[in-house]
Design brief:
single chain; 413 residues; alpha+beta; ten-stranded mixed sheet; two-stranded antiparallel sheet; 12 strands; elongated
């Protein structure tokens, strides 16, 4: 039998424990642990959730990695075509961790109506377009289907539809300058709104429309096997640097690669600060919880001074008695963790399902509601970390037990 655990258990379950002078302080300590866990879980879930959502939106428009001709000079519109006849298309055979490769092309133009106009980038997509990553952003209509003959269906953003007063089924003219000679009569196309999307990313929503890639090929006088660039999707975002280097090494010398963390480095530099903020919150909450537990432990020791004296008189070692109080403290921490997890996970589930809380300025965060993302491993690791760190913080104050004299302690009133 573990004697220290047995005594600690009796102390916890004893009636005098619940009506003792330390009861209010113990409750405050438990509440501090619970509140700290709630704050930490919310900080992790919202910080990671926001990072994931921003990543997903940038990826939906660009893929994780882009492969294009060196002569494009990282232009937003396709200038020099790339041949579809590549070893890596439609899939990489020598590089693992790549889920999809698609061919696209972009061309700058203007939507010109009777009373207004909008500058656009028409993104040409084909039968290989990964519609699954874009499906959640379509709020009206459907994703255009380009499997058959050339058609004029287009996908426009909610922002653009509102500016141009377009709705599903409406047609609109678009004008595109000729790259070889801008002074010539521009290319004109009439598109029909098949669907409306809203990603919340104004930088993209205010610019991009999606059309059949064959329109861009014809306007640029390209062959059917020529496209603007390839977009590569990965299974794991965290491998983006490694896979970018691998892909660069596997492609021809006239092709260059660029990943979205480099292309949109300011955005990723900003969301990288979320990790620092989360670490600061976790550190503060653990410190606050630990200080409250130290206070509770010292009160428990003071309250049980006579018991400590008796145990020492009976031959118990200092470490044995310290373990009794550490077991007691561990129980209080676990109670705080239980209530903290219960409240935090319940709140996060409700936020994920019902989107209770929204950003007052969604344009700054690229999303309307506060997203959450939490996995079992993070929750488990956080709980184990809080428990261990708090117990480590209690080792030093529990040392006061070694200074208690058995004779004085037994006489203690």
């Amino acid at each position: 039998m573990n004697l220290e655990y047995f005594i600690a258990k009796r102390l916890i379950k004893g009636k005098e424990h619940k009506i003792s002078i330390s009861a209010p302080i113990i409750k405050i300590a438990i509440a501090a642990i619970a509140l700290g866990v709630i704050m930490m879980l919310i900080a992790i879930a919202t910080g990671v959730g926001l990072k994931h959502k921003i990543r997903e939106k940038i990826t939906a428009f660009n893929g994780h990695i882009q492969i294009y001709n060196y002569d494009n000079n990282a232009s937003e519109v396709s200038v020099v075509p790339v041949s579809l006849e590549q070893e890596f298309y439609p899939e990489f055979k020598n590089i693992s961790g790549i889920s999809h490769v698609q061919a696209v092309a972009t061309k700058g133009g203007i939507i010109r109506l009777e009373d207004t106009f909008e500058g656009i980038i028409a993104k040409g997509i084909g039968t290989d377009f990964n519609g699954n990553v874009f499906k959640e952003y379509i709020i009206e209509g459907v994703m255009p289907n380009y499997n058959g003959d050339l058609n004029n269906d287009a996908l426009v953003s909610k922002i653009m539809a509102n500016r141009l007063q377009l709705k599903i089924g409406d047609t609109f003219p678009a004008i595109f300058l000729k790259d070889d000679d801008p002074s010539k009569i521009p290319n004109q196309r009439k598109f029909k709104v098949a669907g409306i999307y809203d990603s919340g990313f104004e930088e993209f929503d205010g610019t991009y429309i999606f059309v059949d890639i064959r329109h861009i090929q014809r306007m640029n006088k390209w062959e059917t096997n020529e496209i603007g660039n390839f977009e590569v999707f990965l299974d794991d975002f965290d491998t983006i640097k490694e896979k970018s280097n691998e892909i660069y090494g596997q492609t021809l010398s006239n092709l260059d690669t660029q990943n979205i963390t480099d292309k949109y480095y300011k955005i990723f530099e900003w969301i990288g600060l979320f990790d620092f903020n989360i670490a600061i919150i976790i550190g503060i909450m653990i410190l606050v919880g630990g200080i409250n537990m130290i206070t509770a432990l010292l009160v428990l020791i003071l309250e049980r001074t006579q018991m400590i004296g008796v145990l020492k008189a009976l031959g118990s070692s200092n470490w044995s008695i310290r373990k009794i109080f550490l077991y007691n403290a561990a129980y209080l921490i676990v109670v705080g963790l239980f209530w903290g997890n219960l409240i935090a996970l319940g709140f996060l589930w409700a936020q994920e399902k019902y989107h209770l809380f929204k950003f007052p300025n969604p344009e700054e965060y690229y999303i309307e509601y506060i997203p959450v993302h939490l996995d079992f491993f993070s929750v488990f690791l956080l709980n184990i970390g809080v428990l261990l760190l708090c117990l480590l913080m209690l080792l030093l104050p529990s040392y006061i037990i070694t200074k208690i004299s058995p004779v004085k302690a037994i006489k203690y009133e």
